[in-house]
Amino acid sequence: MEKLSLVLDLTGTFVFALSGALAGVKRRLDIFGVLVLSFAAANSGGITRDILIGAVPPAALVDLRYLGVSLFAGLITFYSSSLIARLSTAILVFDAAGLAFFAVAGSSKALAHGLNPVMSVVLGMVTGIGGGMVRDVLLAEIPTVLRAELYAVAALAAAGVVVIGHLLQLPVTPVVVVALMLCFGLRVLAIRYKWQLPVAKSEIAEEPPKFRK
Predict the structure, then answer these.
(1) Is residue 81 domain-resident?
(2) Exposure check for the chain: N or C terminus, fewer CB within 10 A?
(3) Spatial distance between the Cα atoms of 48 and 12, rounded to a whole number of angstroms
(4) What does the alpha-carbon distance between residue 90 and residue 28 come to, in Å, rounded to a whole number?
(5) Is position 78 within any domain?
């Protein structure tokens, strides 16, 4: 389980780093900004997960492979910026892939550290959405998880499959494959068909803040 978590972690790190770097290039950040964004997007969810389960210091801060993978993905993206115009959906696709890998990795590592099934599902979701939230905050945007189609729900579904497979003692590889496909498929279909959770209907208009003289 621990070896599987490492493989999924590094794979998720790479694809989320691509997502973060692509978002940085799109906003015309310099090379330092792109690399910072790639590292933050790739590792924030994993760092949060490790702190919550007591695996400190977090793997991303002691294992240079995480830093290396993040910077490698960031440099590839920065120097291939001419391709961005032809990759209109690339950020969403990489983000969906990163969400799937991290949700599965997070729940797997939580189980390996002895957490109960419910908290393992929650940690899977937190791992999946953490990097995207930090990326969006650094870009001064409303986090995707708060406004997009089935973002956290897709992560919960993948983590749930991992935990159920663990409880039923099913073979690990097929369970992981199903979980990855479910999360990625849900996210892509939600983007394609605009599936989303109910949104509050309010007649309250957003007004600018008023300051006293």
Answers:
(1) yes
(2) C
(3) 15
(4) 16
(5) yes
